[in-house]
């Protein structure tokens, strides 16, 4: 409301609030960071020449001892994507570094800062320079991978959506991310059976984004045709066809795909526990005899890993 109706007064208000960012009182730091962070979602900050000072101030809050201040600072930096999207390119390297720092936050037991960093980075990526993204692509992909199986649905959804965005960004240099796409393929396919619809939606999006970078046209077409948001999925038939194309294009991956699926035999989600042995069954069904001989049957038969 202030950005809309009292814009000329905002520079003075920002000036008066700025000292509170380093106040000894945590409540003052939280309140001032929250206000300035939300202000960045308005285009008025450009007109009032406040964008750069606010970016500097919020970036500096990432070292605050209060988790909520660090979270709000990241939210504010992410808000640049809606308030001043054309400025993201100019400040892309700095914004990207802040998001990566947020994902690596060591004093974040519930990963709330990491969640904010992933959500904000997803919004910023569309406006960033390719060269800035490529420099951090692998680090981010590796860092977010453990969140695919988080007990918190919000973390699963945010990390998987961000992985899809990263895959879209890397299609011109797909070799950079191919190994990470192959490593993440089993979790993405199994979480199509996730109990939370928002996670399933994120998996469909990520797999559609990954398809063009996998070097298998038939698989990419399958993801595009069968994983549309408005289309229901016959999971067994879908996985059967996916395994057929995987074994035609990547037969050498059989052991890796099996061992990753074995991990999910102990999943806390029953539909994913059921999907993993089905996945393995279809892999073995479609692999040629030479590669099938390489499978270690002992852990497969015992269901252990």
TrEMBL record:
Domain of life, source organism: Eukaryota
Family annotation (InterPro entries): ARM-like, ARM-type_fold, HEAT_Maestro, Maestro_heat-like_prot
Pfam families linked: HEAT_MROH2B_C
Domain Maestro/Maestro-like HEAT-repeats: 54-302
One GO term describing the cellular component: cytoplasm
Coiled-coil parts of chain: none
Listed name of the protein: MROH1 protein
Gene this chain is encoded by: Mroh1_1
